[in-house]
Amino acid sequence: MNTSPADFAARLRARRRIVGYWVVLDNPVGTERLAGLGYDYICVDAQHGLLDYKGTLGAMTAIDARGTAAGMVRVPGNDGFWIGQALDAGARGVIVPLVDTAEEAAAAVSYCRYPPLGVRSYGPMRSGLRVGPAPAESNRQVACVVMIETAQALANTAEICATDGLDGVYIGPSDLTIALGGRTSTDTSVAEKFEAALAKVAEEARTAGIAAGIHCPDGATAAKRLAQGFTFATVSSDLAHLEQAAAAHLRDATG
Predict the structure, then answer these.
(1) Per the similarity annotation, which family is this (predicted)?
(2) Tens digit of pLDDT for each residue in 152-196?
(3) Active site residue 48
(4) For the residues of the chain, what is the DSSP string, one character each?
(5) Which of 48, 215, 241, 249 is catalytic?
């Protein structure tokens, strides 16, 4: 499915169909194995995941060891420090949470780009081995994606998508469901509003010519969302699949 990790940002910007996987565990060996399965990218969750910066660094190293998937990081927040640190660790793209306005999206873009296109500080202690290291080349090889997961972001989606230099938007389905009035992150009572919101984001990203992504609970849902107009999708997570597999084997063993 994937080609070269160095081409990842270009493929994302071209709205090629891309499928990734989500990692929340600090388990470099497990992440290395996942990175060799054929996913286009492996995204490490530094916002809600169970790993710190050393864990993120270890995950990026493990992903690169297989040489086929691109490493991404969902950073803890829209902050130059977190974004710069993730990129210096070797991430080929960041997913920035809780971006509500075009101004906030522009800030995220600036944190991803070296001058004169942005304000990223130069210090690629590890990323220089894989990405760039010339600033202009790094700017081309790094993808900036922001999340649409609040009512305010949904209202401002067209303006966010039109942000200069932004490569894509990404739906956080749990937060968006709650923002739409859901009592839980999977509340089906708001399913109609949720589907309408997805259609709105996918269409406005298409109009702006940027990528549209979404997190999915399984591969079948990812296929459905890609057919609906999303250009990239992430499948579940290592922790969820570990629990599901263990539970299934226990059921088989105990009848």
Answers:
(1) Belongs to the HpcH/HpaI aldolase family.
(2) 999 999 999 999 999 999 999 999 999 999 999 999 999 999 999
(3) yes
(4) ----GGGHHHHHHTT--EEEEEE-B--HHHHHHHHTSS-SEEEEETTTSB--HHHHHHHHHHHHHHSSSEEEEE-SSS-HHHHHHHHHTT-SEEEE----SHHHHHHHHHHHS-TTS--PPP--TTGGGTS-SSHHHHHHH-EEEEEE-SHHHHHTHHHHHT-TT--EEEE-HHHHHHHTT-SSTT-GGGHHHHHHHHHHHHHHHHHHT-EEEEEESSHHHHHHHHHTT-SEEEE--HHHHHHHHHHHHHHHHH-
(5) 48
